[in-house]
């Protein structure tokens, strides 16, 4: 797979919360870190994503926000 995004992180699916239209996928990216992604339920089926699947998290964002505790 070749894509223009430079932020590609390999991981393993830990959890899939399926909904009627969109589903939430939690991915273990190592070091005790996880990333959650919302994708269509159709994409879950088309890609065969399930707990234990090896996936690549692709992050393409034009804005990255930071926050601090007061």
Automatic annotation (TrEMBL):
Residues 2-68 form the Mop domain. GO terms for biological process: molybdate ion transport. Coiled coil: none annotated. Keywords: Molybdenum. Pfam families: TOBE. It comes from the Bacteria. NCBIfam families: Mop (TIGR00638). This is Molybdopterin-binding protein. It comes from Halomonas ventosae.
């Amino acid at each position: 797979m070749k894509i223009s995004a430079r932020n590609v992180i390999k991981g393993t699916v830990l959890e899939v919360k399926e909904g009627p239209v969109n589903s939430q996928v939690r991915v273990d990216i190592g070091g005790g870190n996880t990333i959650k992604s919302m994708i269509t339920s159709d994409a879950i089926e088309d890609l065969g994503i399930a707990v234990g699947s090896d996936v690549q998290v692709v992050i393409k964002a034009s804005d990255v926000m930071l926050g601090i505790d007061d």
